[in-house]
Amino acid sequence: MGYWPVLALGAGAVGMALLAGLQRLDRRRVALLIWTALPVLLLVALAMRNNKPLNARYVSVVLPWLLLLAGVGLARLPRLAGLLVTAVLAGMTLWSLGGYYGDEKYEKADLRQAVALVNQAQPPSRVVLVPVVTSVYRYYDGDAHVLLNSYGQAPLTDREAAQKFVAESLGGHDYCRVVLAREWYLDPQGYLLQALSRVGHLRLEDRVPGVSIYTWERKRAPSLGSDMGNESGLGL
Questions:
Q1: What is the pTM of this model?
Q2: Fewer CB within 10 A of the end CB, N or C, for the chain?
């Protein structure tokens, strides 16, 4: 179910305020409604053609108009309904601020520092797996490394999808750094690290705000001689 109940509660509260604000439409309110709806529809259409999910900041241009309509609506709602809507919006705002400042998942990714740490890591790695934020990482990295990306990759919704992504991305590579930032866009269920550990040794090297840096090395298949020695009790 995820965040849907919370989103439904917030949408209901905002919807009540906006509907109250749109009562008795006149020319000014119609113009305000058009200036609010058109940018949102345009940005939603653009987001549907992009791999990235719609971010709230993309529609922040219409926030002043929405706040104006909602404020007018709150003033027109019956006293009890207005208090309930205000309480819901204030509570969700405080909860959101707590998550923004207190939840590591929403930290601003310091990719500049992550690039510096990868460049300094020993032993060095020519290859870096950096899904989701590849273009930003490349901006700071230049052409110093071969970057493996996740362009065009659908979200990893199960273990099989994660294992397939790892096999395709790391095919032909036995050693690399893994840089993860905002990885939930690609890996909402957390299967990627499991898939990497399944075929290699994964070690957390460092962490900066919003970014985790790992070293990955492919597991070596035991040699035939080693298997025969162990089975014969020689301990070779």
A1: 0.63
A2: N
